Amino acid sequence: MGSGLERTEAWQGEDWVVRRITGTAAAKHYRCPGCDQEIPPGVPHVVTWPSLGAVDDRRHWHGPCWNARDRRGARTLRSRNAPRY
Description:
This protein is mainly beta. The protein contains 1 helix and 6 strands; from the N terminus they run E-E-E-E-E-E-H. It has one domain. This is ATP/GTP-binding protein.
């Protein structure tokens, strides 16, 4: 995995490693857990994982979604035509 600087941030009671990925290093499609939208290749984003976690624990987030992770509620997945109540 290429590119950015790593740092450690506390979130939900544990330490998370956060690595910024440049657009040139972003070569695959990912799904952001913050907004449930796709991160296409070439888009800068962040990769996070618990500091004591495994490779499978990595998640790719849009930068603004990661920054707003404490202000977001759980996303309810619904179809486009589902009622919003």
